């Protein structure tokens, strides 16, 4: 933590010498980007039992926060991560970015799968099978829709989940399937 504070203070001092107002986060971020100071690494001993040194990557990000009716607040923050991979800071950042993409894909898949409250095992297996089929269809059509939306510049908002009830009891929730249906039946609808 002290090393990060030292890095932050050093960058702020360098910006002050260059005549950059550090209270204006956007200008400070642009200055860091222009001088290739957004991503860098240093070696740090993280464990005392083996006296091993690992590279620590520091990534500066410009964050925008909007809460309710308050105006958008922009500030600069530093993210720190460490790894046992040897390489440049940019290379390790790309690896972590692809890892987060994989995690996001798993999160999306879990959102798509059916959730049921039925105690009937046959119905549960049927719904899980339908969920797998819908997931496979969605992944294929989603790739197609991304291509279509980028070519035609169509924007869609399909945030509401679909819920299936049986005698006032929720038995199935599939949020992605409703988006799929809306995209197929109303592809030109703008949000």
Description:
It is a single chain. The chain is an alpha+beta fold and 191 residues long. Helices cover 49% and strands 22% of the residues. The protein has helices spanning 2-17, 25-34, 89-112, 121-152, 175-185, and strands spanning 39-47, 52-65, 73-82, 162-165, 170-174. It has a 3-stranded antiparallel β-sheet with strand order 1-2-3. The chain has a two-stranded antiparallel sheet with strand order 4-5. β4 (162-165) and β5 form a beta hairpin. Mean pLDDT is 67; it is low at 156-160.
Short description:
The chain has about 190 residues and is an alpha+beta fold. It contains 5 helices and 5 strands, in the order ααβββααββα.
Number of helices: 5
Number of domains: 2
Average of per-residue pLDDT values = 67
Instruction: Indicate the overall shape.
Output: elongated
Q: Specify the helix fraction band.
A: 40-55%
């Amino acid at each position: 933590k002290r090393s990060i504070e030292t890095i932050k203070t050093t960058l702020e001092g360098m910006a002050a010498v260059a005549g950059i107002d550090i209270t204006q986060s956007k200008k400070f971020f642009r200055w860091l980007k222009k001088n290739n100071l957004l991503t860098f690494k240093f070696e740090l001993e993280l464990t005392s039992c083996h006296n091993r040194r690992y590279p620590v990557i520091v990534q500066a990000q410009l964050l925008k926060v909007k809460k309710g009716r308050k105006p958008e607040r922009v500030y600069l923050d530093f993210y720190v991560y460490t790894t046992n991979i040897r390489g440049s800071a940019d290379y390790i950042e790309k690896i972590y970015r692809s890892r987060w993409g994989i995690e996001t894909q798993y999160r999306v898949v879990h959102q798509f799968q059916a959730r049921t409250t039925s105690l009937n095992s046959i119905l549960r297996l049927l719904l899980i099978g339908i969920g797998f089929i819908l997931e496979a269809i969605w992944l294929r059509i989603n790739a197609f829709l991304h291509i279509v939306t980028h070519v035609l510049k169509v924007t869609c908002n399909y945030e509401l989940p679909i819920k299936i009830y049986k005698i006032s009891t929720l038995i199935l929730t599939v949020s992605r399937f409703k988006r799929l249906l809306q995209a197929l039946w109303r592809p030109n609808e703008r949000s």
